[in-house]
Amino acid sequence: MQNRLEELRIKNGWTQQELADLVEVSRQTIISLENGRYNPSILLAFRLARLFKLQIEELFLYSDEENHG
Predict the structure, then answer these.
(1) Which pLDDT score, from 0 to 100, does residue 23 have?
(2) pTM of this prediction?
(3) How far apart (Å, rounded) are the C-alpha atoms in residues 17 and 68?
């Protein structure tokens, strides 16, 4: 799943560790999310979306093709 996490984190001037601290996860989790190796739990997706004042679907870009492959 594509996401805008890195773009928005940089725009806000936060390091990966600062973002991790804000949403109470490890820096490794943020790295994995930014690299697309990990999809967040629904709770983490809500926390991130709320932090950036976005809807979840504005932050995490779902493509129907991802489920057909």
Answers:
(1) 98
(2) 0.87
(3) 34
Burial of 47 (0-12, 13-18, 19+ CB in 10 A): middle
Residue 32: CB partners within 8 Å, gap ≥ 6? Answer: 38
Rounded Cα–Cα distance for residues 16 and 62 (Å)? 23
Report the length, in residues, of the chain: 69
Which pLDDT score, from 0 to 100, does residue 68 have?
58
CA dist., res. 41 & res. 61, Å (int): 15
Return the amino acid letter for 32.
Answer: S
